[in-house]
Amino acid sequence: MLKSTAQKLLVVMTCWFLFFFISIAHSESYTVEDYDRVEKVDIHVHLKTDDTQFVRFAWKDRFRFLNIAVHANDEAEMRLRHRTAFIQAEANPSKVAVASSFPMNGWDKSEWNDRTLGYLDETFKKGAVAVKVWKNIGMEFRDENGDLVMIDDPGFDPVFKHLSSQGIRLIGHLGEPKNCWLPLEQMTVKNDQSYFRRHPQYHMFKHPEMPSYQDQMAARDRMLEKNPDLHFIGAHFGSLEWSLYELGKFLDRFPNAVVDTAARMGQLQYQSQENLAIVRGFINRYKERILYGTDLTCDSQTDPKAFYARAHEKWLRDWRYFSTGNLIKVPELDEPVRGLSLPRETVDHIYRLNAQRLFSNSWK
Ligand SMILES: [Zn+2]
To answer: In the prediction, which pLDDT does 14 show?
Structure first.
């Protein structure tokens, strides 16, 4: 029982203040209705087709793209990927920017260096604003002695020096999620389980003769130490998706590095199921170092309408996670995940401002 008028007044005022602050907090976040009003960049897609309809559809969602042409297998395939990447950008220069890559064949020959720099310069002339290195470096590609070539190999030094001097950013998908070194049943997210079930050649738990997770991260860090002027984008949270603590240490150690969220939202959400406040605090603190990306991939066989429908569903789900406090069912986890209800300013950084700062001449 409330004994005095003063006590009653205190309760009323407390309720009023609580209501006031909750409404302020709410208005600081975007809503689901804001989704297609806010301009956004998906910094990690692979549009491997001449068909440019998807980019038009995606503008309904206010998305622009960095279209990444990866060197995954041989040079012929890489050239095809560059061809389609530039077709997409030329058709929609205000919506699509391109990241290129370089061939590894001829690595052991002395002319590899000049040839690679020449190849890259051609892609820069066409407008490429970044260069991607993939996990085949460190996990697949071997020199003529049969040794795996790691990313800190001195053979790459002139390439990375060239990128630094040209102001071109290096995107690195190096190593794999830490789950890759665990047995299937210990992996934290379902998409890793299904990927490594389908690609046992990349499931490092089955290949103890290969470099460890720590070996891959250490090679990447040595490369960055050698190249302090290189601006680096760690794809897939820089393969540090399993621990925001480790990711924070990495970002503090390398001030020119940022990371993207591509294909690792499940691991972030797994951590927010464990402690939502830590994830929320981390993203607010590092809001200038995290870029939204998905890894959405299509090729000439993909129906653009169906692909857009899948992309829309994924984008909207991620938007709800970052912007609202809703409970969200995600395909990577069994239990639903609570949205982070991040402030608008943080969401703007992750979805647009960081991309515009990094690639200030793109999307014009
Ligand atoms: Zn990718």
So the answer is: 61
C-alpha 218/C-alpha 200 separation (Å) is 24
Which residue segment(s) compose the domain that 271 sits in?
31-358
Q: How far is the CA of 45 from the centre of ligand 1 (A)?
A: 6
Name the residue with tokens 């020199």. Answer: 143
Whether 199 maps to a domain, the answer reads yes
Looking at the structure of the chain, the number of domains it has is 1
**Å from CA of 132 to ligand 1 middle:** 9
Residue 194 zone, left/alpha/beta (φ > 0; ψ -120 to 50; rest):
alpha
Alpha carbon of 57 to ligand 1 centroid (Å): 21
How far from each other are the two terminal CA atoms of the chain, in whole angstroms? 66
Q: Does residue 363 belong to any structural domain of this protein?
A: no
Domain of 179: which CATH number?
Answer: 3.20.20.140
**What is the pTM assigned to this prediction?**
0.91
Residue 195 structure tokens: 């990927």
What's the gap in Å between 160 CA and the centre of ligand 1?
Answer: 20
User: Pairing relation of β-strands 96-100 and 130-133?
Assistant: parallel
CA of 42 to the centre of ligand 1 (A): 12
Interval between CA 262 and ligand 1 midpoint (Å): 7
- Confirm whether 266 is domain-assigned: yes
Ligand 1 centre to CA of 81 (Å) is 13
CA of 28 relative to ligand 1 center, distance in Å: 32
Residues of the chain with pLDDT under 70: 1-6, 8-27
Considering the domain boundaries, does residue 244 fall inside one? yes
Neighbours of ion ligand 1 (CB under 5 A): 295
- Which pLDDT score, from 0 to 100, does residue 13 have? 62
How many angstroms separate the alpha carbon of residue 295 from the centre of ligand 1? 5
Longest dimension (CA), the chain: 89
pLDDT at 3: 59
Q: Quick one: CA dihedral 248, 343, 45, 191, positive or negative? A: positive
Distance CA 25, CA 35 (A): 18
Cα of 341 from ligand 1 centre, angstroms: 27
Query: Residue holding tokens 């609202």?
Result: 324
Contacts of 245 (CB under 8 A, 6+ apart): none
